[in-house]
Please model this.
Amino acid sequence: MDDGSRLLTGPGAGPVLSAAVRHAGGELLSWTLEHVDANPNQSTTATYLAKVSWPYGERTELLGVSARSGELSETDRGAEVFGDGNREVAVWIYPADPDLPGLKRAAYPELLAALVNDARLLPYPVTGDELELKIIGYRPRRRAVVRFTTGGNTFYIKAIRAKLFDDVLFRHRMLTAAGVPAPHVAHTTSDQLMILDALQGKPLARAIFDPGDPCTPEQLIEVLDSMPPSVAQLERRPPWSDAVQHYAEIVSSALPEARGDLEWAVQRIRAGLAGIPLGIEPTHGDFHEGQVHVAAGRVVGILDVDTIGPGRRADDLACLIAHLSTIQRMNPAQEAKVRDLLARWVPVFDRRVDPVELRLRAAAVVISLATGPYRSQEPNWQESTRQMVRSALALVRQVAG
Model:
């Protein structure tokens, strides 16, 4: 089915973007594809960096477009809808994301200052000029994180889809009430913004390249094991391995040469994990070096607890191994440091969970990560994807022959 991927990733996107910019009162001067979220045979969402001439001058804008194989969704129609008689697409100019209604208030300093003052986050009022904003992450139609700093105080704002907001808030409060070092929720809004206090320390993703060990593998296991039993009573999220076929299809669509290897890996992963119970341990659900904060050689916090729920500890440890195994653009010294950490950490993880299960689940996560280079339109995404596929195959071959 026509999911819109050919339109949104090819030259046909130009007239769509031009029409949207013209409708908003500007003139499109140039554009480049910036990000692609593909759901083969169902939908495609893409973002573009566009140079636009407005009545007040030129400016680079981020435009988003969503297309579906069927009818547009209700939230699609919260954006501007354009059609040519054959299909309709939803178009927005950042930060007017139709699924993240609060994002506009987090993206503009003046609006954010008003929010900060209304929420009394600080003991004194601030103006937009006093706020330093940085977009930490934006996944179109899904989520966004903005960091803002003023007077030595740092906060993070998460823009969350309406249908998920209450559940995410509940999970944050569940963990902090149990003493788990998750971020404290400082304020929430009716348009689904969640303001969080900054964690202490620095991300493990940066600390792994500092001299010495950033933490011990035992501490990583301990922070996971510190989650309260009530986490296991939450709604279950499928482990990454359940969707390995889905992610393999996305990678194969972008890089057809990898299809045979991916089909082999998927078959071995599914066969090796067949019959293993779902698990009832409290799990993080997306545990990797970007989610862990460390200081003075110890784990001091965990981020993005939206995904906590019942599962198997091997799911979390496999996710960490997969992410560490696929870090991109390292220099030789950094590569050696990560290899050394993995060589010392994985045997500790092997004592906590089944080694075969650990590697198969890690391979499945690597395959999910292999969708990233194309999705983010990295300059050499093909080779980055090949490297990730090779990493997944290596993990499977360690235990499947």
